[in-house]
Amino acid sequence: MSRTSGEGGLEPVFIAPVSSPSSPNSSQSSGSRASRAPAGPNSADDSRKPRSKRTHRTKKSGQSGRSERSGSKPNPTKKRVHKNQSTSKRVEEVSAGGLVVDKSGEQGLLIGRIDKRGRMLWSLPKGHIEAGESPEDAALREVLEETGIKSSITRSLGVIDFWFMAEGKRIHKTVHHFLFSELSGTLEPQVSEVDDVKWFPLDDIAKTLAYPDERKLIQRSGDLRA
What's the whole-model pTM score? Predict the structure, then answer.
């Protein structure tokens, strides 16, 4: 709306219309002002950035939380391995025995045991050293018990040691070996311990022995007739 004053050519003066409650423009304008007013300085652009940062932090926090929780749990596998290792005990055993040479000086005495596959395994007679015994005394006693032959010691053949498992135990066995000379007795395998006893030519002893460590011991022992 404009008004003029006479014909003086005055410039029109615009008067802002008074908005009424029923005016559509007025409702849109006031509604628009009402919706923006509470935001204040936190405009739409400003509010988006903090929310984006908070969302990013939340993801990191969730990830780190899971990592901390997973890291704090005990590892049951490691515990079981440690437990199994602790139950495997190391045991030290010491035995004594050796090779008996007969009165002719041409044959050596071996004991035989049948393994689970039904094979006869030949080895040197030997057994545990009892409390208070010396290796020599134990060797003489074991030879008599396992073979029925009484003998005397001629010399030492050396010491061997090896590892094996039995009943969940790691056993480290050390065996003192001697060369014996037959004195008396009759061949008789020890009941429940030995399946057979037999004289073999001295030249065949090494290749008849079932266990590599005993074979090596005999091979490096020199002349067994001495």
Answer: 0.61
